[in-house]
Amino acid sequence: MGKGIPLNDQDRLPWLCNLHDILLRNVSSGQSVVLACSALKKMYRNILMRGESATTQKYDESGEKEGLPELKILVVYLNGSFELISERLAKRKGHFMPPELLQSQFDILEPPLPPENFLSLSVDRNVSEIISFIMDKIKVK
């Protein structure tokens, strides 16, 4: 990406599998985990939940595969217009992703939909509002 070339699914696969392994290790040891990444496609979110086997398994409409171990994750989908995100990206200094690649990210974006476990909120909010909203939603009752 730093060279102005968008990543493809094959580029992302090892990274996503590694993130799954990190999540699994930490959750298995009883830790709560927050992972921030751009899991732009449903397939990427499936890999985060199920690991490498998610790349070769077929799923029913609910995204379930019988007998396949799965991490329980909550996706926080921060949505915003191309214009707003482009404006913010242009203000970043020293970021690895050049603004010219933003359109490629929007082109492959598959926003989460039910039955995925997700929250959706606008990036029009300020950071403290976003954090407050998320914290309120994930509190154990």
Spell out the helices and strands N to C.
HHEHHEH
Distance between the termini: 41 Å
Low-confidence stretches: none
Give the number of helices. 5
Mean pLDDT: 85
Which word captures the global form? globular
β-strand percent reads 5-15%
Number of strands: 2
What's the gist of this structure?
The protein is 41% helix and 7% strand. The protein is mainly α and 141 residues long.
Write the layout of secondary structure elements.
Layout: H1 9-28, H2 42-50, E1 75-79, H3 82-91, H4 102-108, E2 118-122, H5 127-138
Parallel strand pairs: 1-2
Helix pairs in contact: 1-2
Give a verbal description of the structure.
The chain is mainly alpha-helical and 141 residues long. The chain is built from five helices and two strands. The protein has a two-stranded parallel sheet. α1 runs parallel beside α2. The mean pLDDT is 85.
Supply database-style keywords:
single chain, 5 helices, about 40% helix, about 140 residues, two-stranded parallel sheet, mainly alpha, globular
